[in-house]
Amino acid sequence: MTATVTNNFVSHLEGAIDGEHLPPEIVHTLHHERPIWVRYDLEQINKSLSKQVLLSRPPTIWRYAELLPAYEPSKIVSLGEGMTPVLPCPRLGGEMGLNHLSVKDESQLPTGSFKSRGMALAITMANHFGVKTVALPTAGNAGGAAAAYAARAGMQCYVFMPQDTPIINQYEAVAAGAHAFLVNGLINDCGSVVNKGKDEMGWFDLSTLKEPYRIEGKKTMGLELAEQFDWKLPDVIFYPTGGGTGLIGMWKAFNELREMGWLDSPVMPRMISVQSTGCSPIVNAYDSGQRHATPVQSAETIARGIRVPGAVGDFMILDAIRQSGGTAVAVDEDAILPWMSRATATEGISVCPETGACFAAVQQCLDDGTISANDNIVVFNTGASQKYSEAIACELPLLNIEQPINWAAI
Ligand SMILES: *Cc1c(COP(=O)(O)O)cnc(C)c1O
């Protein structure tokens, strides 16, 4: 399939493993079994776009149109994915011993997770190329987002998820009209089903990093952050890492802005990749100095979004961490839910288990001196806690109004 490229700023696509240039007007999946970058003529963008013009546009991801892949406005598939707030957390930060702790709250996006950013771009580009049916494996939130954006585009969507995927993720995919299936395996097993089905059924594979555009959607997290921090980036970013598109996309955004000369501070943030001791392939590879991660066996964590035993873009994640001077941290699986509850109850932000892991990592890094009390720290809250009904389940005391209320017990 080919389509006319109407946006002049995409210069080419590029194989991430070998730098080979690829034509942007054709649908691509992987190149030598590895992901593909979208590259732009940043000099031209700089000539066409000023910060002033950018700031005058509506606060959605589409305000960064020049830095997004080729599209025709009529092909955009959107659920109004807007700019998410950066929320200062003085109460929690104070308890932890940090003076500048903030959360970028992605739980406020359509379908309640940052996956909507990637799907907005992936489905828009699939639409651009005339794709009618998409399919993907998911640990949970990607399936819900893909189903919603596919419905919005009038496409068919096939979703495959592990049997123990959070129940809301199962329901939301079906509610948005997807053909959803449970698989008795992990996300990589679901990926194999999609891989077979795409030949048999003619599906377009939306898997993490297996098409070039989800990263570009995730990139808007970094663009927004730069704008929200007045073009001086925070010192440290904590990000839960599964397939890695979020971390890779954000690092790509910072580099594009730097190349455009838009950043007012020469210091780039240190990217800290967070995983659980139950599934930490990136941390293992980082610690042993490898460029590729060895897939972990029997991956298990309550933070389903980061239960990814092997990532096709492992080297891109590790490159970003190392180039930024950051690190990769595995937190004790048992620390995840307590931190999720604590952060939610202390600041009122709807914190997902993946972000619970990030708060555990922040404390760990403060204790071991990786970060210090005066660092400007941003933790990404990648999803809404309400989507994890199993993790937040509890029993409320029943007030029997047929009897006089015992106020002493309230
Ligand atoms: C998918 C997901 C992640 C992991 O994101 P990647 O960019 O794929 O590494 C983290 N948190 C939540 C809530 C997710 O849904």
Short description:
This protein has 410 residues and is α/β, with parallel strands linked by helices. The chain has 14 helices and 13 strands.
Looking at this protein, list some descriptive labels.
16% strand; alpha/beta; 14 helices; six-stranded mixed β-sheet; 36% helix; 13 strands; 410 residues; binds pyridoxal-5'-phosphate
General description of the model:
The chain is α/β, with parallel strands linked by helices. Helix content is about 35%, strand content about 15%. It has 14 helices and 13 strands. It has helices spanning about 40-50, 50-55, 90-95, 115-130, 140-155, 165-175, 185-200, 215-230, 245-260, 280-285, 315-325, 335-345, 355-365, 390, and strands at about 10-15, 20, 35-40, 85-90, 100-105, 135, 155-160, 180-185, 205, 235-240, 270-275, 325-330, 375-380. It has a 6-stranded mixed sheet with strand order 4-5-13-10-11-12, sandwiched between helices. A 4-stranded parallel sheet has the order 8-7-6-9, sandwiched between helices. It has a 3-stranded antiparallel sheet with strand order 2-1-3, with no helix packed on it. α4 (about 115-130) crosses α8. The longest helix has 15 residues, at about 185-200. The termini are far apart. The model has no long low-confidence stretch (mean pLDDT about 95). The structure holds pyridoxal-5'-phosphate. The site of pyridoxal-5'-phosphate has 18 residues, from α5 and α9.
